[in-house]
Amino acid sequence: MVFAEFRNLFDKIIVPDKVGVEDFVDRLTLVTAVLFGLASLLVCTKQYIMSALTCYIPVGPSGELFRDFVNSYCWVHGTIPLKPNEPFPKSEEMWDEYDRIRRINRFRLEDFADRLHLVTVVLFSLAASIVGLKQYVFNPLSCYIAIGPSGEEFADYVHSYCWVHGTIPLKAGEPLPDTPAEWEQYDRLRRFNLYFSLLSMGAFVLGLQCILFYIPHLAWQALCSNQAGGDVFQLVKAAADAATSERSAREKQVKRVAEFLTDMIISPRVCLQHYGRRNVNRRIYQKCDSCSTPRRLGTCLIILYMIFKVITLINAILQLYLIQRFLGFYSEGSTGSRSMNLAKFGDSDRAVTVSDANEDWSGLGFGLTVANHLRTGRDWPETTLFPRVAYCRVRGIRLVGVENAYTAQCALPVNMLNEKIYIFFWFWLVVLISASVASLVLWLIRVVFTPRRKHFIKRFLRIKIAMVRNKPRTISRADIDDFVDDYLRRDGVFLIRMLALNAGEVITAEIVTELYNDYLEQHSPPSSFEANDRAPIATKELV
Fold first, then answer.
1. CA neighbor of 532 nearest in space, from 478, 475, 488
2. What's the mean per-residue pLDDT of the chain?
């Protein structure tokens, strides 16, 4: 069956199409969709069903399952490519260095809500692949004509014609058009939306939504690399590695992370102070670097992150609106008189109003309305939402010099899939928007309210004190205030939060303690306190 469809598709490219609604370039676009879908299917089959890679060890332990274990381990852990004539790593340190540089790390400067957006990218990608395979590889529709011309290829021709031309859904009890004028009217009012939204463009729109969800994350990672003053992702990875290392190596790794974090916090300010000595260079630097002032204030990263979160939230809201408009729905919930209209792009004045007599969620959106239709048994014959059966007028069939027209009844099994996919994504996007709003509000509270930042840092210092109970002493609150406000600032606190999210609170407490001890050594004590009261934080307790 699949082979026959590929053969028919190939014939459509080589032989001029009798339908005449597409040119050669349009057919190449459809072929491209088939090729990408086929490539995705082949790669996934090779990776997750068959053997993705084959590994060889000259001398290894005995056992039948060892070879399978090596293949699986290298698959999940990753491999390290070597260039031609590149020396083979010999020591454990060299292997660790190659592994750190060339194997992809999974650490991100994102919280739970941001990761939900990445999950959404995967979901839209899977949905686009499934719908694309159903539409362009398998049968998206099946058409039937009671009495038609003889010929083996006529049935295939009808399927292809109704696929490229589009079908017309009819409501329950609605009479079938009789005259060509009535067919033209139905064709103009109903075919456009159904054909272009569901049967033809569904996979492409899902793929576009996938790309739109992923673009903000690419932009955020690029901004982090260019504006953070260092490799932020390597910083997070080093902290995560320190959390799982042995105690003997942990202290050295913690110091390295603390030094790296100190350089990232201090270096932008030093750079600006250096250029401040020369007014011309300072103006050039500030014009070329849009983040120069926020860097001086220690707010560059956090401002970029808040912009990133606002963009992802707006994107999710627009995606929800896009689904509703893409399917031809227009909500009028503000008045409370109509819940949802099935409106066609070509003639919105003749929209069919869906009765809301049995609905309690008037105007709240597409997903709730469709779910309520399913709950109350109001199926597609009444609402024409995701129709399972539609009609197609096949014209231009010449028999004995006379042009004939045939009415085909088409089953649309792909709409059963589309209905479930769009209902799921509507509710998923509602959850995603709720999580994004909650995350944005939480980060605004963290950024705006200074006591929240100080309490956050104090909590990690208390964790370290609980781990080291050696003669606890008091510590100046002014030291903590200066450490958070003047030394770390908002960007430093933001980086520490990301370390806690990715590496854990215990290792983050050790890093914060190391930073605080370095701060005490570099800065003179306030006049109201004696120098002998400024012992390392590991032996003190907060007031």
1. 475
2. 69
